[in-house]
């Protein structure tokens, strides 16, 4: 009788969960962007996605900016909300894949958040100041070996994607180049253009206009595949560092224990939104590429990213703050 009671209880909970998901949503949804408003492609893409989700779900999707600590404040806030599908997180590789290895967080990414969809990938590329006598990755590596410690690579700040891109390059190429952190991508880019630093790994959107103006030289895509925007630019992996892969990414996560049926509903609606040409154009305008992944694939991808950046952080000797 006890076993039967548990079975009946389990069936009842499953039916209740399914009914709850069928009714979902019944009120406005919050989409938390853990960065300042208008400060990044994450905010721009997030707002565009929120607008389209509101249309398909029949309720408002309100964008709420909760910046601080490189995205960790907003991420922790979402992790501690009710798992009911009414609080979404704009997740990115900084707070979700790199920060766990660098900072003492008040939540656990894998335990306290659940993946819904990977949405887009922002390819990175390796650039140098035009005065540097190199035109490809092998020549840069050879020059760095001739001048150990003398070449400077800029970053938007310690433990950011540009920094770890440089550290990964340094490690895989077995060279000694010196890190120069800045307070943001704009000053890092400006000092590389000015020649104060010689190397910068950045997103495609910010680098391409400067390269076309002759202020930077593009050496290679940091992703495994060439960019459709720059099909003639070889990848770093093609130029002697197989497996080299650096990109920022944009996805949606929710608090852990959110019902699977609600997660699947959100994923389905996100997929529909990404089929809209206008939405794809917005993503493309941010130098990003649509990269839809379902919850399972996104979970695998996230774990691989966390593992990869953990090895880079440990190899670079970065300390927990």
Description:
- The protein is globular and about 65 Å long.
- With 321 residues, the protein is α/β, with parallel strands linked by helices.
- It is built from twelve helices and ten strands.
- Strands 1, 2, 3, 4, 5, 6, 7, 8, 9 and 10 form a ten-stranded mixed beta sheet that branches.
- Residues 5-17 have low confidence and may be disordered.
- The chain has helices spanning 2-23, 41-57, 72-79, 93-102, 109-112, 137-146, 161-173, 185-194, 204-212, 260-274, 277-285, 295-316; strands at residues 29-33, 61-65, 87-92, 113-128, 152-155, 178-181, 199-203, 217-221, 247-255, 289-293.
- It folds into two domains: 28-122 and 247-316, D-Maltodextrin-Binding Protein, domain 2, CATH 3.40.190.150; 123-239, Periplasmic binding protein-like II (D-Maltodextrin-Binding Protein, domain 2, 3-Layer(aba) Sandwich).
